[in-house]
Design a protein that fits this description.
The structure is a single chain. By secondary structure, the chain is α+β, with helices and mostly antiparallel strands. The chain is 49% helix and 9% strand. It has 15 helices and 10 strands. The strands form 3 sheets. A 5-stranded mixed sheet has the order 1-2-8-5-3. A 3-stranded antiparallel sheet has the order 4-10-9. A hairpin with a 2-residue loop joins strand 1 and strand 2. Helix 6 crosses helix 7, helix 8 packs across helix 11 and helix 9 crosses helix 11. 44% of the residues are buried. The structure holds protoporphyrin IX containing FE.
Length: 414
């Protein structure tokens, strides 16, 4: 069968239905491959570990030209590593991997985050209540900027934290959230371009080997340094997603409230359990809904034709909630990851395949380490959860807890 016949364009439906869009379509059209239309193109949606391997084969799916402009202008930035293919991608990706996967560096960032968290908690104890989703971005902004050598003045943290959250919050909507995200990205790109210029000209100094230093000196596959705009985009591609881990920490508050028995186990500083908890947070709660690329050539998937240039979508949320892959997918159960580490192409909240050859997120070790450091700290705090709107709408892209998760501190327990 080919994708030849006209199908209604589903872009509006994709935005309106959010995370449920592809799972709903699949329920109505069972089979290995879903055909639809988005952004004026034919689209084919897949899921499951075999589909992940198919999607991450560079001979099958390319990224150049695949990313919608609104996503580039808010979330990733024009010229970002996400949009590269082949040797150009490999060379840029090596830079990210060298910065983000060295265990000593990951531990160092986690140490900064723990310190910033402990400082923040002391101040929370003085206030009647705090909103976790407002506070954690500040903690992570301070930590990641100190670690990456991005200089911050004493009054800069709150505004930067709110700008970084806005860039993530505005990618999947057409309204004011989106326009704010575009505006803050432009402003923050200019700010970091200036930093890169000052470091390159010797007017500012940063430690050798720091994130700012490495990006400022990086040479692309053509042997030339990154232009100042691309350097700023890639610097943001380290600090923005680190702050986005706040989404999962707020979700952790939600999980500990809904399933309080899990809190006891987390309180006792058991690292393997905290890591399993981090994996379950990333599986269970909604963040990246699906991933997309373009068919590099005419393809065939499980006896179905996918013509060149079709948009190929990997249904991340659907895969994480498929009962073909998970026992009781709608149960929050960290134990499922306790003795069995997640399969490379089964748990894909940050992409699948091999991170050194494909587009899988290079920040996964950092994400798991920060969650395993901060979530047990949250579990050890003594707080009450007042009445609030704890709903998480799957129609909102990206989803988030409506109230942001308000807590009333009894006393500091960190
Ligand atoms: C790529 C998710 C944290 C840096 C990605 C991708 C996803 C993702 C879905 C795209 C995979 C693909 O296109 O196939 C997340 C989530 C995070 C997170 C949910 C936690 C909230 C981080 C962190 C960093 C980071 C902490 C850096 C410190 C990147 C970069 C890429 C990427 C540079 C592009 C990789 C490439 O194109 O080769 N991430 N990420 N991410 N992520 Fe993350």
């Amino acid at each position: 069968m080919t994708v030849g016949r006209p199908i209604l364009d589903r872009s509006a439906s994709a935005l309106a239905k959010g995370y449920a869009w592809l799972p709903d379509l699949r329920r109505r059209n069972p089979g290995p491959l879903l055909r639809t239309r988005v952004l004026g193109r034919q689209a084919a949606a897949l899921r499951g570990p075999e589909a992940v391997r198919f999607f991450y084969d560079e001979d099958h799916v390319r990224r150049a030209g695949a990313m919608p402009e609104p996503v580039l202008s808010t979330l990733f930035g024009h010229g970002a590593v996400h949009t590269l293919d082949g040797p150009a991608h490999r060379q840029r990706k090596d830079m990210f991997l060298s910065l983000l996967t060295e265990p000593r560096e990951v531990a160092e960032l986690a140490r900064h985050a723990a310190e910033c968290w402990d400082d923040a908690v002391e101040a929370w104890a003085e206030r009647p209540s705090v909103v976790l989703f407002d506070e954690v971005p500040r903690v992570l902004t301070r930590a990641v900027c100190a670690w990456a050598a991005v200089p911050l003045g004493p009054d800069d943290t709150d505004r930067l934290a709110s700008d970084l959250v806005a860039m993530v919050d505005g990618f999947g909507t057409a309204g004011p959230r989106h326009w704010r995200a575009r505006a803050v990205r432009k402003r923050r790109e200019r700010w970091l371009e200036d930093l890169v210029e000052r470091v390159r000209s010797g007017h500012a100094t940063v430690p050798t080997g720091s994130v700012v230093d490495v990006i400022a000196k990086h040479r692309d596959v053509d042997g030339r340094p990154l232009d100042r705009h691309t350097a700023a985009v890639e610097l943001l591609n380290v600090i923005r997603p680190t702050v986005a881990i706040s989404w999962f920490i707020a979700y952790a508050g939600h999980a500990l409230h809904r399933w309080p028995h899990l809190r006891k186990r987390l309180r006792h500083d058991d690292t393997p359990y905290a890591v399993a908890f981090a994996h379950e947070l990333r599986r269970f709660y909604p963040f990246a809904p699906y991933l997309g690329g373009l068919a590099a050539t005419d393809l065939r998937w499980q006896d179905e034709d996918i013509p060149a240039d079709t948009m190929v979508l990997l249904d991340v949320y659907g895969q994480h909630h498929s009962d073909e892959l998970w026992d009781q997918p709608y149960a929050f159960d960290p134990d499922r990851f306790l003795d069995v580490p997640p399969g490379r192409d089964e748990l894909i909240p940050q992409g699948g395949g091999d991170r050194s050859t494909g587009h899988r997120c290079p920040g996964e070790d950092i994400t798991v380490a920060l969650l395993a450091t901060l979530v047990p700290r949250l579990a050890r705090l003594d707080y009450d959860v007042p009445d609030q709107d704890l709903r998480i709408s799957l129609r909102r892209l990206p989803a988030r807890i409506r109230s942001g998760f308000v807590l009333e501190m009894a006393c500091s327990g960190a």
